[in-house]
Write a structure and sequence with these properties.
Length: 172
């Protein structure tokens, strides 16, 4: 299913007032028809979700109204249709802002990719160091256990005497 844009979404994307977009879509131009979707909506007094579909405009009646949606593919055609009614300077300014926005997004994406690569290499280094520390820890634990066992044997021999020394002295 194609992504559909509401009038407020279109207004925020192309920087044109919602009323102008609503009027252009309401004309149901032949070029826009394949991309245009209209849905009848009955509003009630306290329905804020429907209010946002009409661009913040509150309707008092409960008669059916039409909410226009436009597929993303039809956006370029709508912009072309609107261009005839918008001063060229506004179009150029809007397009310049869109290009700037896209450029900033591309730079941000490149920076994030670079940071991701750095973090991945740092993560790999830390994982390598963790393995080294774990290996060293196991080695030290085994040495400590061996030293403790040797120490306990010495202590035991010191307490009860060496078996060889007892048999040599005649104590059995």
């Amino acid at each position: 299913m194609q992504q559909r844009l509401s009038v407020p979404d279109i207004a925020s994307i192309i920087g044109v007032e919602e009323d102008i977009i609503s009027n252009a879509l309401a004309r149901e131009d032949e070029d826009l028809k394949p991309y245009l979707y209209s849905e009848p909506v009955v509003t009630s007094g306290g329905d804020d979700s429907v209010e946002t579909l009409f661009g913040g405009e509150k309707k008092e009646t409960e008669e059916p109204q039409t909410v226009f949606m436009l597929s993303v593919d039809g956006l370029s055609i709508l912009i072309t249709k609107l261009a005839f009614n918008i001063p060229t300077s506004d179009l150029i300014e809007n397009l310049a802002c869109q290009v700037l926005h896209l450029t900033v997004l591309q730079e941000d994406i490149a920076e994030l990719k670079r940071e991701k690569q750095e973090l991945q290499s740092q993560n790999e280094e830390l994982e390598r160091r963790i393995k080294e520390v774990q290996t060293e820890s196991l080695k030290l634990k085994s040495e400590a256990a061996e030293a403790a066992q040797t120490q306990s044997r010495r202590w035991f021999r010191g307490l009860f005497g060496d078996e060889k020394s007892r048999t040599q002295s005649g104590e059995d």
